[in-house]
Fold:
Amino acid sequence: MTSTRRLFFAIALPDSVRQAVIDWRAARFPYEAGRPVAAANLHITLAFLGEVGAGKEQALRAAAMRLQQKPFTLTLDDCGHWPGSGVVWLGMKRAPRGLLQLAQWLRAQAARNGCYQSPLPYHPHVTLLRQAHQAVALPSSTPGWEMAVGSFGLYASLFDNGRARYMLLDSWPLA
Ligand code: 3AM
Structure:
């Protein structure tokens, strides 16, 4: 039997931004708005890979290693709600070109390796709340956290005691 893992490429939030975001979330969203994503799970997905076997994982790691992309900065200055998927998110009014190129490249590699990629446009975001299917009063603005992105990682999505946990498997610097 061949085993698979549920994988995705993502950018982690720096500790200082992570802490500021969870404090802001606690102050701005009432308990009933939705289920807060665990602080350790906050991330920006670059490419979702789905259930991947060892051979394909190796090919995707090799692709990640070949990537040539300069570091960039991004500003989390937008917030929104997708009631259909029940997600309240933090995002960017203008995503930097470096981020879009990085995601596009990884998504193209994923597709080449047979990982289904959604035809919907890529909308980079940090999921803040899940199961937010009712109307949510969104803050009119965010503090606009700026963060430098100097690496990206490959994560496995695990289920422990009914909770999602994301395990960093490997990371690669941007240079
Ligand atoms: O926190 P977000 O939503 O950005 O939504 C899932 C999460 O990202 C996304 O992959 C990340 C780790 O689970 N994800 C899960 N299933 C997915 C799918 N079928 C998916 N993204 C696209 N298609």
Q: What stands out?
A: Helices lie at 15-28, 54-66, 97-112. The longest strand covers residues 43-53.
